[in-house]
Specification:
Blueprint lengths: L1 H22 L7 E8 L28 E8 L4 E7 L6 H15 L6 E5 L16 H19 L2 E11 L3 E3 L1 E3 L3 E3 L23 E3 L4 E3 L10 E9 L4 E8 L16 H13 L4 E6 L5 E3 L12 H19 L12 E11 L13 E11 L2 E5 L3 E2 L1 H10 L4 E5 L8 E2 L2 H6 L2 H5 L6 H14 L3
Parallel strand pairs: 3-4, 12-13, 17-19, 18-20
Antiparallel strand pairs: 1-2, 1-5, 2-3, 5-11, 6-14, 7-10, 8-9, 11-12, 15-16, 16-17
Helix pairs in contact: 2-3, 4-5, 6-9
Length: 450
């Protein structure tokens, strides 16, 4: 009888334990880990971002270091990773290849891997002419290594947000005057003064008043907001900082053959030097129509590596100032909420003349929310006005728009910009109505984060 009683008692204890595990899951605690890996090349490599008709030769030196950076979040149920590399972008096929390799070796779900590039035009280009180099052969493995190190760095954290402002950026859609000049609208694309089309007998080029070209447009709008997420360890000691700002990495043009981290890399250099023990990660924003205040090869500006560094230090000072004002706390809602969707947008009507079967472009977009912070991704170059609309639609206190992430669909301008013309609309694969479709679908996604 006693044996039966104890057997029943043990069975009840086992059932109670199992029930408790099902009803009361593991406590949700936000953890974060960050790491960076140096990818500064020792070889002479071909650089990306500009036409090969102008930048014909490989790099001839280095001015500053390049990195892969990874920020991992963990809530005891899900993991999420932001990966940012100091390059212009990845070959299209590599976005899936790298993310799958990260997923296979770390267990992080594919949709939870946000692979971005800071859009640095003064960095080597993965693949292409660099495909047989040691630098490229090691690249994918270094991405995985960085994520693994970030996972090893995971610990419970406190978080806090802040917003800064910077004018290092400038609208680049310049309305031309009626003039004659020996230079083209974009000396980084084609030039009769240097590169493949250099000539001893340059001709004057006629510009028509009102035409939109690439150049400095001081009167044009920008998104001057710097989004900042401060991450401390549980004791309140600084650990990491996530920075978001919209501005092309193009202060150095095609005549520059020195590898550089560009303004954003120098910004992180300044931040990490002035905030002890902190590792920073920068995510490029909606920079489709936004350049730095000066751009090599535009408006007569000559490349200057030191001026590029100063541009980065300028915005870096603002980030450090805001960072030091932020109070961090354990998040009230530490759960990682994520929605992924492939949005279909129509292709340009002209493109149908060569391909009648493919009438749409698939745009993979991811929305993430942690506490009062929201991130939206886009796989290309979105105009800043669309990015601002999307950030406002999040209805959270801190919103980040992450461009150049998980793919490369090119430029998506505003509907108005298509009517104005210019480099970006002419280069775009999208139909003008794509802006409205994207914003509508993204707004629906954001509702699902609540």
């Amino acid at each position: 009888m006693k044996r039966t009683f104890f057997a029943v008692l043990i069975l009840l204890l086992i059932q109670t334990t199992i029930f408790s595990i099902k009803v009361f899951p593991q406590e949700i605690i936000l953890k974060a880990g960050i790491a960076k890996t140096d990818i500064t090349p020792t070889e002479s490599l071909y650089m990306g971002g500009y036409s090969e008709t102008c930048r014909m030769n490989p790099s001839d030196g280095v001015y500053g270091n390049l990195y892969i950076r990874a920020l991992v979040f963990d809530d005891n149920q899900n993991r999420l990773v932001f990966i940012e590399s100091d390059i212009v972008g990845y070959p299209e096929a590599d976005y899936h290849t790298i993310r799958k390799q990260v997923s296979d070796e770390t267990g992080i779900q594919l949709n939870n891997i946000l692979l971005g590039a800071v859009h640095n035009h003064a960095a080597p280009s993965p693949g292409g002419k660099n495909k047989s180099t040691e630098w490229y052969r090691q690249f994918n493995n270094k991405v995985v290594l960085t994520v693994k190190e970030a996972i090893q760095n995971l610990e419970p954290v406190r978080i806090g947000g802040g917003t800064g402002h910077s004018k290092i950026a400038m609208n680049r859609r310049k309305k031309m005057q009626d003039t004659f000049s020996y230079t083209t609208f974009d000396e980084n694309n084609s030039s009769q003064l240097y590169g493949k089309y250099k000539t001893d007998n340059p001709q004057k080029i006629r510009e028509i008043e009102g035409v939109i070209r690439l150049g400095a447009n001081p009167g044009g709008s920008i998104d001057d907001e710097i989004g900042i997420l401060r991450i401390d360890n549980i004791h309140g000691e600084p650990k990491a900082v996530f920075i978001n700002y919209a501005c092309h990495g193009t202060s150095l043009g095609a005549r520059n053959n020195k590898i550089s981290p560009e303004w954003n890399g120098h910004m992180l250099e300044y931040i990490e030097k002035n905030i002890p023990d902190v590792i920073g990660i920068f995510a490029q924003g909606a920079a489709g129509d936004i350049n730095p205040r000066f751009v090599g090869g535009l408006d007569g500006y000559k490349d200057n590596l030191e001026k590029t560094a100063e541009l980065g230090y300028e915005i870096g000072k603002e980030v450090v100032r805001v960072f030091n004002t932020i109070t961090t706390t354990p998040p009230l809602n530490p759960r990682i909420r994520l929605v992924h969707q492939e949005i279909l947008c129509p292709r340009k009507y002209e493109a149908l003349n060569t391909d009648f079967k493919n009438t749409t472009i698939t745009v993979p977009v991811t929305a993430v929310r942690i506490d009062d912070f929201t991130w939206m991704t886009f796989p290309g170059e979105l105009f800043h006005e669309i990015g601002k609309k999307i950030k406002k639609s999040t209805h959270t206190q801190y919103s980040f728009f992450v461009g150049y992430c998980n793919g490369s669909v090119g430029y998506l301008p505003t509907q108005k910009a298509f009517s104005e013309g210019g480099y970006e609309p002419s280069s775009s694969r999208f139909a003008p109505v794509a802006e409205k479709i994207l914003v509508k679908e993204v707004t629906k996604m954001l509702i699902n984060l609540y």
